[in-house]
Amino acid sequence: MASTDNQDNVLDNSTDDRNTKLEKVYKIFDELCQCPICLKLLVEPITTICGHNYCLSCLKHLLASSNLEKTCPLCRENLSYLKNSRITINFILRNLLETRYENQYLERIAEIKQDVLDNKDKISVIKRLLIGNYHATINTGYEIGAHRWTLFIRFADDENDMDIGTYIKEIIISDPATQEHVLDAPPYRYTMTGLQSRTICLNIEFHSRFHKANLRTDWNLCFTGIGNQKSIELEFIN
Ligand SMILES: [Zn+2]
Ligand SMILES: [Zn+2]
């Protein structure tokens, strides 16, 4: 509790001092009030175990979005605990937000309600994308010890490439040994012969209805065993 001395000091402060302090408080508060996920005004704020603040709807979306580990987008703290516990709104922060932003806060509430309505018929699909290569050593003519390799891009649950074309529009392959190569329909395979392993860059474009940014990744050709692959989890909102 503030002592009488402190109260006197506060009262003694000039109006200018108070305004400067107030401006500082507003500035800090305004910075704090942007949700790091949606980059808009925080609504129904949740303070996580690491002390960061997110909109309730943004956090729910993060927790529901995929099978990946749930981590704080700002500091990577594990947020899996939120899946099994009651998520509690930071009421002090909410009251401050409502008071400072009034109509803007109400507009955000309405916006989120509309988003929920717009998305209620949409389905989230998780796909596991496999990128890798298989290879064989060939010993014919001048190509002794060369590798006949095939780069593949496919879905884990889609052995015959029946499904992948629904999601992927095209893949641009940048192979340092040749020119750019565009794969515009499945099966997404790229076969070459060579002696040396190298890194192939991929730019994967999805169909526009998924509103998904291109996936840029690369693959280092593997000539040991039968080859190798990596897996990337992708979420599509249909
Ligand atoms: Zn948000
Ligand atoms: Zn955090």
Automatic annotation (TrEMBL):
Keywords annotated in UniProt: Metal-binding, Zinc, Zinc-finger
PROSITE patterns linked to this entry: ZF_RING_1 (PS00518), ZF_RING_2 (PS50089)
Gene3D superfamilies tied to this protein: YEATS domain, Zinc/RING finger domain, C3HC4 (zinc finger)
One Pfam family matching this protein: zf-C3HC4_4
GO molecular function list: zinc ion binding
Domain RING-type as annotated: residue spans: 35-76
Signal peptide: none
Name of the protein in its database record: RING-type domain-containing protein
Organism for this UniProt entry: Didymodactylos carnosus
